[in-house]
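Message: I would love a firmer grasp of how sequence relates to backbone shape in proteins. Thank you; the sequence and its tokens follow:
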Amino acid sequence: MRWRRIIVFGSAGLLVVAAAVGVYSYGSFFGWWARPTVHDAPEAKPAAVEPVASGLRLPFDLAFLPDGSALVTERETGRLRKVTADGQLTEVRTIREIAEPTKQAGLQGVAVSPSYERDGWVYVYYTTANDSRVGRLRLDSAAPPEPILTGIPSGEIHNGGRIRFGPDGMLYVTTGEADDRSRAQDRDDLGGKILRVTSAGKPAPGNPIEGSPVYSRGFRDPQGLAWDEKGQLYVSEFGHHNLDELNRVEPGGNFGWPEVEGTGGESEFTDPIATWKPADASPSGMTYHDGRIWVAALRGERLYRIATDGSSAEQLLTGQYGRLRLVTEAPDGSLWVLTNGRTGPDYDLILRVTP
């Protein structure tokens, strides 16, 4: 337990007291009072928006194959589906190893090997009865996924689940703390982390702790990964009640959860470059495009684009298509966007957005 100096404001004046604050720091204690850095962002209009495909059920992630088609995961059904650039949607297979889906578990991330034309590997993040894990499979085989990274904590909520190959060829994995806050600061636990592993699931060379897959820690539920043209990694993260975050990630960084939510100003933790109120964002999948970071927002039902220093934010598609789970750059330079949780005959959509 840490002792903090807490400033209490009241009608009688200013009272300064010393108090014991459990797992929350000064910055998090006053998170309700903190003003987000992104608020009242001006609305921008894309040049065009058109549906690519419809009929998806709670899609979570999308990754492009070398031929320009894309693989899409459906979290609850466990289906891995394929969609061509002209919108033809087919089912590749169902990942039957997933546990009975709960609030946020199931089949989540998908990534295509950088050497796909040679090795044919497709990587998926999914929840079993015992854990969350990353497995790899080949599209021309009916064999179950080969687990390469296991033991990631799972729960009804806070399962992370985005996987991406970085510009260094390593596989990056976002994990949530599965509603157990202590995991995020535990160096030996895989929850509440960004993990960095080889294509075979081994701890990547050059990680902060030799022999550990942990690249950075102190996250609640990170769901977005993107790199700029210089190879700098950015991560989006669901906050608790106060502030969602956009973080610039360095190896070995500690991003504060659960001791800090939002900006804490403490030397041992890395502050976010941008924050939102959860009602305006709840940020999920993200991409880097044309010099800006693009973030899909669930509760906020919009896209954000924002400079890499966290400034100059704009919002697009606000309230037009419901909850947005993912935005990613397509081979033709457009952006593909996944909706999340629509009902009716079309269910969820893939949208092609021309910025």
Notes: Helices lie at 26-29, 116-119. The first strand starts at residue 2 and ends at 10. The two ends are 49 Å apart (CA to CA).
